[in-house]
């Protein structure tokens, strides 16, 4: 078979049709496996919804005729042969239109899906960008708070160092004062060195 027109596709499952197949008087073609389809059972074309004459509306067809079968054309009037040839050409013309409509539909569906995917990707991308921005702001705030805490800590350390220094100065004087009072020495006399005190206490 010359396939310049491409392999005919089933007008229901869109697979390459294999003979024998069902052909309708409205020039639609279906695989034999759809024979039990309720629409075909009720003589309604699944391709275009036409209600078909129950006898001539659907027929089993083949792509080829055997050499013996071609002889049956020999007795036909040329007008009948032309009529048959016209019907065969109408079938192919309809199949080409149907195939082109089918691929146009598939293409527009694919484009629509792609546009929808693009749109949802864009939305997801914008959402992520906002989350990223919010996260960066949180990091900046945390950094700023960290700096504040470092400064507060430094102030506390300075204060602690200062307090420790004061304490270090106060403790010897305090313990000196205590040892003097224990010995009955007035604290104001005890302003000398601790060595003096120990000498006094030794007497
Ligand atoms: Zn099919
Ligand atoms: Zn039809």
Automatic annotation (TrEMBL):
Q: Name one GO cellular component term.
A: synaptonemal complex
Q: Which UniProt keywords apply?
A: Coiled coil
Which residue stretches, if any, does this entry annotate as coiled coil? 132-166
List the InterPro entries: CCNB1IP1 (IPR042448), Znf_RING/FYVE/PHD (IPR013083)
An example Gene Ontology molecular-function term: ubiquitin protein ligase activity
Q: Where is the signal peptide?
A: none
The GO biological-process annotations, alphabetized, read as: reciprocal meiotic recombination
Kindly provide the name given to this protein in its UniProt entry. Cyclin b1 interacting protein 1
Originating organism: Chrysochromulina tobinii
């Amino acid at each position: 078979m010359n396939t310049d027109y491409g392999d005919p596709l089933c007008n229901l499952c869109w697979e390459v049709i294999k003979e024998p197949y069902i052909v309708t008087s409205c020039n639609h073609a279906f695989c034999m496996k759809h024979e039990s389809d309720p629409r075909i059972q009720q003589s309604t074309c699944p391709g275009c919804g036409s209600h078909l004459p129950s006898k001539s509306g659907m027929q089993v067809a083949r792509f080829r005729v055997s050499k013996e079968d071609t002889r049956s054309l020999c007795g036909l009037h040329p007008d009948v042969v032309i009529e048959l040839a016209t019907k065969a050409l109408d079938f192919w013309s309809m199949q080409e239109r149907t195939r082109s409509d089918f691929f146009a539909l598939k293409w527009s569906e694919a484009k629509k899906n792609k546009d929808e995917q693009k749109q949802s990707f864009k939305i997801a991308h914008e959402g992520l960008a906002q989350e990223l921005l919010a996260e960066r702001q949180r990091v900046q705030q945390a950094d700023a708070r960290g700096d504040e805490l470092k400064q507060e800590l430094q102030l506390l350390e300075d204060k602690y160092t200062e307090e420790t220094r004061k304490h270090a100065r106060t403790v010897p004087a305090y313990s000196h004062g205590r040892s003097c009072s224990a010995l009955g020495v007035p604290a104001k006399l005890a302003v000398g060195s601790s060595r003096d005190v120990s000498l006094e206490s030794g007497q």
